[in-house]
# Entry
Amino acid sequence: MSLDHLRLPVIQAPMFLLSGPEMVIASCQAGIVGSFPSPNARTIQILDDWLSIITDALANSPKAAPWALNLVMHRSNPRRKEDLRLAVKYRAPIVITALGSPSEAVDAVQSYGGKVYADVTTIEFARRAASAGVDGLALICCGAGGHTGQLSPFAFIDEVRQFFKGEIILSGAIANGRAVRAAQILGADYVYMGTRFIPTKESMAQPDYKAMVVSASGQDIITSDAVTGVKANWLKASLIQAGYDLNNMPPAADINFLEAAGDAKRWRDIWAAGQGVGSVNSQQSIAKVVDQLTNEYEASL
Ligand SMILES: Cc1cc2nc3c(=O)[nH]c(=O)nc-3n(C[C@H](O)[C@H](O)[C@H](O)COP(=O)(O)O)c2cc1C
# Structure
């Protein structure tokens, strides 16, 4: 599996409830890696169907970029073994693990030549994932949409580079082509971009959510663990809409990532986005976003 022919070194990041086959196919056809979190397919049968749709669509596009499946490895996810089995069945070119150890995925995915990237928010998690034998680490830095790290990208990547020789994906408020170039200068091989894709035509976000992202600026984002028990970045206006008092946020919620119905309800009512929202100024197709990112990237060289 080669990422050499990507148009840009960008991975459209997995987003709960927002990314599905349409987004993945459009991203891959535009020349960047497309991905989605497996829980977005509500059942194992739907996941099987989605993977079939994606592989069929991309089989007819020989120049398309590889796709990635995001698996939640937390023990509270009862589907993790079945979802991994489907990743193997469809030979997912890349599996990105989150919220738990990547160990179970490493042997299974590398056995057919796929790659495993682990999404990590701390140096400690990066060390553990590196020792599990992953091909790459996605470093989730401060400012990222959804569950976020707290480290500056300058600090995080430099420290990880001292003990990890594999691929590094940098993430957190990277939302324009110049920032992609800046990440490469810091030593990243790829970047992970989520927020930039929330208001795309192929995103499953509700229209009001897309509009809120387009009109928001960095100051409209708040970091809180009150919603899911883990620090995450949210649009302030969506918290207010859902009845929260921003000056008096409740204590951290209990962590249970896949108490599926409850989790989906929280994410449907309260909208995640990263500090890069200020760079997202219109609703476009993914093809247009990738054109714009490419122009910005090239102008920065
Ligand atoms: C709405 C939303 C939902 C997300 N859901 C997931 C998810 O299900 N699994 C995951 O690993 N990361 C998830 N993320 C995090 C992204 O994969 C990625 O780390 C983040 O978007 C990068 O930061 P950026 O938004 O500033 O580009 C989500 C992010 C957003 C904005």
